[in-house]
Amino acid sequence: MDSVTKNYLDSPSKKPLDSVTKNSIDITLLGSKRSWITQQGELMSTTYRVQNPATDEIVETFDAATDAEVEGALAKAAAAYREWSARPMSERAEIVARVAALFAERKEELAKIAAEEMGKPISEGIEEAEFSAAIIKYYADNGEEFTKDQSIPTGANGTAVIRRLPIGPLLGIMPWNFPYYQIARFVGPNLVLGNTIVLKDAEICPRSALAVQKIMDDAGIPEGVYNNIFATHDQISTIIADPRIQGVSLTGSERAGSIVGAQAGQHLKKAVLELGGSDPYILLDTDDVKEAAKLAWTTRMYNTGQACNSNKRMIVMEDIYDEFVAELTKLAEAAKAAPADAQGENTYSCLSSRGAAENLHDQIQRAVKEDATLRAGGELADKGAFISPAVITDIPVGSDIYYEEFFGQIGRASC
């Protein structure tokens, strides 16, 4: 275990983890060999598994990669880079375009996998697969234009250009909340550019990870160019340190990002980090308060509230605040739990795991203890990861809970 990880584990801090972004990595890449802290602050097994959040039933488990398998993935990625990056971009783009087509073609299959793994409503899973296809196709269609040499002025004799070139094998550490979109926006531009990929997905999304690998294989991505790996957390540190890896991209919590960023910096690797946030949604005025509240509510409930760019703090002008909150409360009270494959108007799905639901429930209870007002919802089911959508107001500024991200279906309002 590297010193950075050890220092974190020895830290006396008991504050819950900062939550995540677009989102949310399943774990923070830190922890003991037996359990890990998730973005919501819960302890979780390191086992790759399908654990249906609606029932909490473990449907299937997968073996973590051996050290030999990790070495094999690194070796293949390095060897494939030499051949893949040497191909004309037009040839790479043609193959990547087939990846996009398969995402669209298999959208219903992909949606069903995500529904069972992390509770995503089927309709939203289909939308995500379609969006992933559009992102990948965008880079396949425009890669050559985007990477043309860019001439820049120079005071010296001669000419100067900015040139965009591949750099080698990259490590991607992806989250569970958008199991296809997150991969798509990472691999789309990098595959077209000529980089190769080692992809570590969230532990609760192994089937979606394998489905993406199959899409890559079936589209004709050469062996070694895209490598899904069920790596452990100690292995991730090893992969970042490996000289064959030239960069790392992580979507996750601020704390996860600080660790991975430090490890990347220690080994002089490029790093792209998309980290947690608690975005404000400011309503200054409207001719239709009820419609504005409905829009705010449906936006907040998307992906069961598990998105980094969700409107987690609704700040409303005082003269329309009471009516706005009353409408939010009405919408929350009308919501009914339903399975991911039976979603409709005024229904909600489960969170990604029982632990996530318990953590969100704990946050609500702590907010109430700090004199916040729970106006509706927040009821945790006896089994599974269902928690009723809540409306909470008046969280005191200065309280610990005021500064935490609510990663779930919580309408939080203030004026």
Mind explaining what this structure looks like?
This protein is of the alpha/beta class and 415 residues long. It contains 12 helices and 19 strands. The protein has helices at 3-9, 67-86, 89-105, 107-118, 122-146, 181-193, 206-219, 233-241, 254-266, 289-301, 318-334, 354-369; strands at residues 27-31, 36-38, 43-44, 48-52, 57-62, 150-152, 160-162, 169-173, 196-200, 226-228, 247-251, 270-274, 280-283, 313-316, 336-337, 347-348, 373-376, 390-393, 410-414. It has a 5-stranded parallel sheet, sandwiched between helices. A 5-stranded mixed sheet has the order 13-14-19-18-17, sandwiched between helices. Strands 1-2-3 form a 3-stranded antiparallel sheet. The protein starts with a helix and ends with a strand.
Please tag this protein with its features.
415 residues, alpha/beta, 5-stranded parallel sheet, 5-stranded mixed sheet, 12 helices, 19 strands, globular, disordered N terminus
